[in-house]
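User: Some background: our group keeps a shared notebook of sequences we're curious about, and every so often someone picks one and asks for a predicted structure to add to the entry. Today it's my turn. The entry only has the sequence so far, pasted here. Could you supply the structure so I can complete it?
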Amino acid sequence: MGILKFIPKKILLLGSGELGKELVVEAKRLGLEVIAIDKYENAPAMQLADNSFVIDMSDKEILKNTIKELKPDFVVPEIEALSIEALKELEDEGINIVPNARTVEITMNRDKIRNLASKELNIKTAKFSYVFNVEELEKKSSEIGFPLLLKPLMSSSGKGQSLVNRKEDLLFAWNGALKNSRGKIVGVILEEFLNFDYEFTLLTIRKDSGENLFCEPIGHEQYKGDYQCSWQPLDMNQSLINEARKMTAKILDNLNGSGIYGVEFFVRGKEVIFSELSPRPHDTGMVTIVSQNINEFELHLRAFLNLPIPNISLLKPSASRVIISDNESNNPSYTGLNEALEIENTKVLIFGKPTSKKGRRMGVVLSSDDDLNIARENADKSALKIKIVS
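Assistant: Of course. Here's the predicted structure to add to the notebook entry:
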């Protein structure tokens, strides 16, 4: 048997945020060429990529023509706000979409992934209902019951999500959801508000062979649907982990595209309840940069490039805490970095976003320790020391 030859590939990244930036880091380590695309200049991944372009990815013809001109070996979406029609047509023409166009379409729309999980695969989810006009809002909300969550059908990082405690607040939440919605769909999803015990992410790698590999569960906390901190490992019953793995395998066997998936679950008592799924590295999974022997970004690359993935192991208990801006600036600066880095076994990742606004995630702190509680405390303390200033 001859020696296998690895020929470096060209990757086109659609969306160039902080997750894309870390993917570029790992891609360059493998000698890959990376082209980064986003809707604004100097996005984080663009700062490291071989080349970059600013285009309207929601425009079918612009996106399709750009991809055809650049001739990538793989198109890797990092965001939801793009033309799925362009990706479908390009896939039919032989372009490799990661993980595949059907999966990108299903997971970019909350209604489609929820319908697949709940209605087709009989996986337990929170009660939910779709509303496509304001006249149905009160009736369907009463059917779900208050309090409830109201979310855009397509969005990211919790944008447009509201906890609604009474019917008088429905219209305000509806308008906020539509304002923050991505895509052209006018509609929201109403979701039962679960009094869950905790939530977690199960990073799952789907290999080209169809085998599913699982990372240790990652505990996380969110505020208004947006990740605030995460930690690995998560102390939870093995039977619940097995149930989550079973649900995940059922979904991925249906979607069947190689790459990493961030699968979110709620735990309530002895119940595991499916929440969301993203077919790409997950924000809560940034902790794997210090916690695992192979981080989520390298795992994503290895999976869709069909490279070997040996045993995935935990190096040390680790935690993350986001750095949030509390002001707006077109040229943000940072204070407190020296103080933050004085804390042992702590890394600070500044994403390099060219502008800041209130509530925007601008960086993350990663910390490790033999004691998970100390790792979490150190990540929190370090993140608090860093301030974004204009």
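Suggested note for the entry: The first strand starts at residue 10 and ends at 14. Residues 238-255 form the longest helix (18 residues).
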